[in-house]
Amino acid sequence: MKKFADTPFLPTEVEIEAISENEARISAYPFESGFAITLAHPLRRLLLSSSIGYAPIAVKIEGASHEFDSLRGMLEDIAIFIINLKNIKFKINGDEEQVVVEYSFDGPKEIKGSDLINSEVDVVSPDEHLATINSDCNLTFSLIIQRGIGYMPSEDIREIVGTDYIPLDAFFTPVEKVVYDIEKMLVEDNPNFEKAVFNVKTNGQISPITAFKEAVSVMYSQMSVFNKVFDLSEVTVSDSGEEPSEIKELVVRIDDLNLSARSFNSLDRAGLKFLGELVLMSEVEVKNIKNLGKKSYDEIAEKMESLGYPVENTLPENVASALRRKLEQLKA
């Protein structure tokens, strides 16, 4: 029997399929007709524009004063060296937004991305070629690696780094590809419902799941500006009788996460019973759990990231509010 609707149908299901380490397929459904593309298009734009990545923003090469110079004993001109350098994808090992790293190589040697890995930075494109030097060459240079989003031209970077460094065009975006498809699906004999299917591929600096989660978070935060006028801060999906789809996976018990005995016991002694309790905590709060050593923290952080909830990320406010209410019910 047909019914009159007084609110749009709320999608309830999310599926995540790992295609490879750096590629994933994410599906959400069922949407009423027209709603899937309304969300999919801005999410694609946010994935490509607001995902956090890392890039070299400036280089200082001993014996070279500008990008049109050359270096004795190096096959590549400085301009080619810079092009190769921008193709190498770095990742800062830690919470710093910027690091300066020093390198020195004696020839003969072919220098690749893997040669630039050290305690401060990792390289997720280890096979990328940087330079070839002969036995007469000592290549010494320093790099500024920056965390950021989007793109910044070298002209703007020159104002920041000064004249000692050669500025580089900085491409921070770690997302290489985002495509979405809107598929028709049947819901209660109605064939006009839709499924939004995203295919996300990154360069390895962050996982595709983390990139997607960050884009959703940015969308929530951008729309929160309307709270100032319309007082929407208390309006959540659960107000209409539905819980956000993430809640089910966030109330998984910690003893079902297959952690080591040491890590589990530390969390258990702290009174933590559910994954969602960890997700609601800041990175500092997790690190400060009593008797939680570095190895246990690293194991927990790795587990949370594999589940799509990295320690350093925060939940959208509507999901966090619904999760707190659910945890209160479960622990009552």
Give the total of domains.
3
- What is the arithmetic mean of pLDDT? 89
**What is the CATH topology descriptor of the largest domain?**
RNA Polymerase Alpha Subunit, Chain A, domain 2
CATH superfamily of the largest domain: DNA-directed RNA polymerase, insert domain
How widely separated are the two ends? Answer: 40 Å
CATH architectural group of the largest domain: Beta Complex
The number of E-state strands comes to 14
Low-confidence stretches: 233-241
Q: Could you say which structural class the secondary elements and strand pairing correspond to?
A: alpha+beta
How many whole angstroms does the radius of gyration measure? 24 Å
Please trace the helix and strand order, writing H or E for each element.
EEHEHEEEEEEEHEEEEHHHHHHHH
For the record, the CATH class of the largest domain is Mainly Beta
Question: What's the overall geometry?
Answer: globular
The amount of helix comes to 25-40%
Largest sheet: 4 strands, antiparallel
How large a portion of the residues is in β-strands, by DSSP E?
25-35%
The count of helical stretches stands at 11
Strand order of the largest sheet: 1-2-14-13
